[in-house]
């Protein structure tokens, strides 16, 4: 295989996905490429990926490589982080099999991940899954003991201006199939008018569908300036010790934000906020709820998520994957029914028209004459 194209380079895949152009090569540093990252690269219609890290490390069966392979995106894997010292945006590189060249100089060498290699490595991941599950459960239990104050009243929830009392709250997270699920529940949004909460990039998803978020919650690393300016309230998720790296960005935009120091994930504190401020129902879309989801986020357990879901209980409806619940099919009999329904009023109007009546009588006379012959 021989490829030659300009590159976009970034150590964070989510940042690179916003800049990469059609036909370019994406140079990333992403261990265990997850489903969301892979889909964002596919949307950029890239030609190939050069990964400084391991696209499949063997810890768990991440879905990203298979998604990229299905779209025939060439993957040169584990070339080493040194390429970040040699390359910059818009450099034109050449990939020849498993070697990376810049101006005919070899600057990196890795492994080609084709369909067979991905299949083999994924099988090894499944073989290791029981060990990973064991570690995941232990970490979840250990941290749940430390973070139990998260739901026992020890966590102080800051005052919010958004009114949740007696309303539904829809929390949108940039997770698996979040766009498809969001398009599926548009009738629900239109009818119930829930409080719309975007967790980081989930806010942009709401904007894309024509909805302005009532609240944005997160560390502010994957949301657009446009969404931050348009939303009604910003909540910056800070570390438990109060440090809030995301606040600097908000201040640079001249905006105000509420700081929420808490352990766990931003989607956890979004759910907890909606619950504590009296939401009647909490609908979560695109959220992370299983081991693979959390491993793809780089987390070794899900203590805070387990605790929050334990607390809010029946108020929570998880809409993740709702697009798979029911897919209507347009049957032929329905099409004929629509056609007949549309023709019926046309026929009535035509029959009552004098000119049409004359035409019908002429046709009847012509038919009789023909029958006489």
Structural description of this entry:
This protein has 373 residues and is of the alpha/beta class. It folds into 3 domains: 2-120, Alpha-Beta Barrel (Aconitase, domain 4); 156-324, Rossmann fold, CATH 3.40.50; 332-372, no CATH class. 43% of the residues lie in helices and 18% in strands. It is built from 15 helices and 15 strands. The strands form 2 sheets. The protein has an 8-stranded mixed sheet with strand order 7-6-5-1-2-3-4-8. Helix 3 (64-70) links the parallel strand 3 (48-51) and strand 4 (74-77). Helix 1 (13-19) packs parallel to helix 2. It is globular and about 90 Å long.
Give the ordered list of helices and strands. EHEHEHEHEEEEHEHHEHEHEHEHEHHEHH
Strand order across the largest sheet: 7-6-5-1-2-3-4-8
Question: Which blocks of ≥5 consecutive residues have pLDDT under 50?
Answer: none
| Beta-strand share of residues | 15-25%
Give structural attributes:
alpha/beta; 3 domains; Aconitase, domain 4; 18% strand; eight-stranded mixed β-sheet; 373 residues; seven-stranded parallel β-sheet; globular; Rossmann fold
């Amino acid at each position: 295989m021989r490829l030659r194209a300009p590159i976009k380079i970034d150590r964070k895949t989510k940042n690179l996905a916003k800049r990469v152009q059609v036909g370019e090569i994406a140079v990333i540093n992403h261990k265990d490429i997850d489903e969301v990252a892979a889909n964002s690269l596919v949307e950029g219609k890239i030609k190939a990926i050069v990964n400084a890290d391991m696209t499949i490390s063997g810890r768990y069966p991440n879905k990203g490589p298979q998604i990229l392979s299905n779209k025939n995106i060439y993957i040169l894997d584990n070339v080493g982080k040194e390429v970040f010292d040699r390359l910059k945006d818009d450099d034109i590189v050449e990939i020849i099999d498993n070697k990376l060249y810049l101006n005919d100089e070899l600057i990196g060498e890795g492994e080609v991940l084709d369909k067979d290699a991905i299949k083999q490595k994924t099988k090894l991941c499944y073989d290791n899954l029981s060990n990973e599950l064991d570690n995941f459960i232990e970490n979840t239990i250990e941290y749940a003991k430390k973070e139990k104050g998260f739901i026992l009243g020890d966590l102080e929830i800051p005052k919010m201006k958004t009114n949740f009392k007696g309303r539904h709250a829809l929390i949108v997270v940039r997770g698996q199939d979040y766009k498809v699920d969001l398009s599926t529940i548009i009738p629900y949004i239109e009818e119930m008018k829930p409080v719309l909460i975007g967790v980081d990039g989930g806010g942009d998803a709401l904007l894309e569908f024509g909805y302005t978020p009532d609240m944005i919650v997160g560390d502010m690393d994957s949301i657009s300036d446009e969404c931050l300016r348009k939303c009604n309230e910003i909540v910056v998720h800070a570390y438990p010790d109060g440090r809030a790296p995301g606040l600097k960005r908000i201040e640079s935009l001249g905006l105000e934000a509420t700081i929420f120091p808490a352990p766990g994930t931003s989607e956890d504190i979004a759910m907890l906020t909606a619950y504590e401020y009296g939401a009647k129902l909490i609908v979560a879309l695109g959220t992370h709820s299983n081991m693979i989801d959390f491993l793809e986020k780089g987390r070794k357990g899900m203590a805070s998520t387990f605790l929050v879901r334990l607390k809010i209980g029946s108020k929570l409806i998880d809409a993740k994957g709702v697009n798979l619940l029911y897919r209507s099919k347009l049957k032929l009999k329905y099409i004929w029914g629509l056609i007949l329904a549309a023709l019926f009023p046309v026929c009535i109007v035509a029959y009552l028209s004098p000119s049409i009546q004359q035409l019908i009588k002429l046709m009847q006379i012509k038919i009789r004459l023909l029958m006489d012959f």
